[in-house]
Sequence to fold (281 residues):
Amino acid sequence: MKKFLLFSFATLLCCTLSAQITTPQPSTSAKIWQTVGLTEVTVDYSRPSMRGRTIYGDLVPFDKLWRTGANAYTKVSFDKDVTIADTAVKAGTYSIFTKPGKTNWEIFVYTDTQGGGTPRNWDDAKVAAKATVPVYKMNMPVETFTITIDDVANNGANLGFIWENTYVALPFGVNTDAEVVKNIENVIAGPSAGDYYAAAVYYSSEDKDINKAKEWMDKAMSMTDKPAFWQLRQQSLILAKSGDKKGAIATAKKSLAGAQEAGNMDYVKMNKDSLKEWGAL
Fold:
């Protein structure tokens, strides 16, 4: 009996020790998201707090590389190309490192995004962009490190860093104007060959107005310098559905020749089957 009780106690103690206790992290994680013009910007970072400590010049030494937050690398993501300090930066995810100074900060946009602290082996080749920005002093201290996206405009915004009584901002630009102009030109120019083709195939496959499908396919083919065999295949089917068997046969023969040249035996067979059905083979 005594051995049984001892075993039970040991089992209970083992289970108790293996249970996980969840407590708040000293530096909690945060994520912010902002649309700037037509570009989506996301920041993932951890937020240390002052807790009575002096930050800049002490906890965060001046003129030393800082991870700009806590825990894992602070990361910023752009879903479109942007400009930072007159440097073109491709769409993607980057880490942010800084060298805080008394009057200026150096800010580095770094391509390596995996890790914590600062890189053990800094590689200048991985710096996608860098900037030197002024320090702004604030009257009200901020307890917890905060990253913001400020002064949002159609053509850009500021990535702001706030802690203690310091604010610095990294300006970045987005290509909204070029994108909007391109969109306007595309709309004003009207539907593309691909738009007409997709509409025609949909109408045909869903047994909608076949004459409208034929009209759209004719427009698509007239706007295409050299229609592909798979495009000609769809045109031949629409012509057959519309009652133009002669046109369907002529087009199917073009599709067949293109498929044979490309070595696509599936389309060779489909075209031969259709030509046989239409009495051309």
Observations:
- The CA atoms of residues 160 and 258 lie 58 Å apart.
- DSSP finds seven helices and ten strands in the chain.
- The beta strands are 28-36, 39-47, 75-78, 82-84, 87-89, 92-100, 104-110, 127-134, 136-153, 156-174.
- The chain has a mean pLDDT of 92.
